């Protein structure tokens, strides 16, 4: 059993590593040769020039100014100095709200830690239950256990203190979550209202466009929306299959070869445009106003709810083009297959299961195989796990990178909950736990977990120090990107573009970073009542991580997309699930401590928490799913007043061009640039006229409204 001395030694070692990483970073970031590694975001924005271009030969590589080493810790106040509004302009709302997750951890756990140390620690410490058990039952325990609920006597009235504190912690957590949800929702709406025009504000993604023997997909889309949205439809771009153009470097190829390849690429592009088999039954449809796009995106288009499916289009950088080709009818099957695969991946954890199932007679081989290989297998698997989970998300057919990352984050958190938390609490693999739970009554499961949790507090304290202290400090050092950049810079970089690509700034990595943060929320909420001594270690993590990742977001990370904090409902939901789990665990633990009479009072906690979650879901989540028509109309009105001559059609025309056609379309100079937005265009159709015909349209499943034979231009 770990003692305070053992925890102190572990803390000292991890603090030493963390300080060493931070000092190494503070020195390495000052060297001109490393400037692109530690400040790549500013280079990508064009706001920083390399210090290696001036000064003496030595000063191009090494910082010779001794005064800068005196101020080597200035990066900390620099990281905290930028206001949140400026941070949003600099890095985007996604990055700013991601940082608020760390602040949320501090807001929740600082008051809880103060309250638990002021009340629960004295209640636990002033008992001698464990000392008596040591004398009579030879029970081993540590000083940390004396600060936990384990030291309270069986059936003691002191357990009511823990119950009251559970209520206090629940109410405070819910209050903080509600306030933060309201704040982030308001930030999102303000961001959408104040931001300059973006293509996704006017564009709707349309899927499952039904085939028509008389018209191409593009013609069908144009006809359908001019008929059903005549006053608001503007233009559309039809999607292509996941084909990618080949990039050509002028330095590596001769001019003649470039011209030949460029001609072939142009011919291939034209062939793809005219070949129906490469056209997907999906399109990005743009409207004249945000209001028109909001109406289309948030309503059902036809009687048949499986055709002409509309949703808000992700921003162009966020589109995952390959999945636009997946038929809508196959999505349900794909997601079922992915769910089954993830279940087996989680509960039949192959690397450890295989090793543990092997039997060896030799003592040395047995020690190596069973004592060393499972840890190595787990480490290797956890490195490739995010890639596996992203592949699963892509297989499921999500259409944006942000949606892919959100689904992968959910699965990563679930995997960590089962194979890191539960496996550590209860000995054995996840499959062995599942087998045990299946042979137990539902009432016994919380008891099994609840009894084991206090005994694992020291393990998780060590885990937090290694992963949350030293690990976070190691993140800012960027040792791997530093080495790779210098290797590429020495051997591969030939052009400025090569040097820019070698910087590899990375991003916040929501699919891996957020689930890791959620594990700390889970640990903090579970141990808040059971072992309060755990909470200060959590607070150090949240504080250190906030400073480190704020620095990284300002200077390093280059976010690939902007979803306007669409991930916050997931963050809120996972914290709620951790809170409910902690309440169930406490209920199970109390039932083994002779406090069964407290069960009715504890049952009310998850009921109240779930009710609170339903309230938040109804009150705030719509802001992350739908765009209020009132907000859309206000934004449109203001924009028309400020920019009356805005040529929206020209602005949106190539916003959602498939990457294989991007360069080709961007270089075009057609005669439609000066086209007026209010111009009415007659759409030619190859379909037989349905004027005054009651027969339903093949496209809409309903009768089309009568159209005039000739569309006249309005008088000027």
UniProtKB/TrEMBL annotation:
Q: How does it sit in the membrane?
A: Multi-pass membrane protein
Q: State where the protein is found.
A: Membrane
Which Pfam family, an example, fits this chain? RSN1_TM
| InterPro entries in the record | Csc1-like, CSC1/OSCA1-like_7TM, CSC1/OSCA1-like_cyt, CSC1/OSCA1-like_N
**Which terms does the record give in the GO molecular function aspect?**
calcium-activated cation channel activity
Chain spans, region Disordered: 665-716
Name recorded for this polypeptide:
Calcium permeable stress-gated cation channel 1
Naturally occurring in which organism (per UniProt): Sesamum radiatum (Black benniseed)
